[in-house]
Design brief:
Layout lengths: L2 E6 L7 E7 L2 E4 L14 E3 L5 H17 L15 H18 L17 H13 L8 H14 L2 H8 L4 H8 L3
Antiparallel strand pairs: 1-2, 2-3, 2-4
Helix pairs in contact: 1-3, 4-6
């Protein structure tokens, strides 16, 4: 049986030291199981954002502040719209995000995406939630369908389908929306 202990490190930011207790003694949580040493016994994880990631967050917040209507942020706003009107407005929102480069955050640039990192995608999703931005009309397409096509389609077909102004429209069309 093993247990893991994480304690604050240096009292700054979100740094932590993590160790695992097991029958074999103290071993690092993600390190070599049979090579405990004083250095390997504790791992330091720095979960603070880099200056580039903070800049990404500020840029997205600024864009949302200038482009997401305040009325759309109300909890009751979307409930009073018909399904068709809600879809139309969310689709228009997706087009505005795509035109400004804020859609397909983790897609490669060559396929019409932002070319962002996993952390930037997480920041994007967090900021969209904090701003109460509308849900995507093509979330499954952006998250599952397009990456599958990118991974399995030939380069020629993929470039024809996912470049230029077509990426998000292409995904919506494939889903029959």
């Amino acid at each position: 049986m093993s247990s893991m202990a994480c304690v604050p490190h240096d009292g700054k930011g979100l740094k932590a030291k993590c160790t695992t207790e097991s029958a074999a003694g103290r071993i690092p949580r993600f390190g070599p199981a049979n090579a405990p040493s004083s250095e390997a016994e504790q791992l330091t994880m720095d979960l603070t954002y880099s200056p580039e990631e903070d800049q990404f967050r500020r840029a997205l917040r600024d864009w949302l502040e200038g482009n997401l209507p305040q009325e759309w942020r109300r909890k009751d706003y979307w409930a009073c719209l018909t399904e068709d009107e809600s879809f139309r407005r969310r689709r228009s929102w997706e087009a505005a995000k795509a035109a400004a480069g804020w859609s397909g955050i983790d897609w490669p640039k060559e396929y019409g995406g932002y070319g962002g990192t996993v952390v930037e995608k997480a920041i994007h999703d967090e900021e969209m939630g904090l701003a109460r931005a509308p849900a995507s009309v093509n979330r499954l397409g952006l998250v599952f369908l397009a990456p599958t096509v990118m991974a399995s389609a030939s380069k020629i077909n993929l470039m024809q389908d996912l470049t230029g102004n077509r990426p998000r429209r292409f995904i919506i069309e494939l889903q029959g929306c």
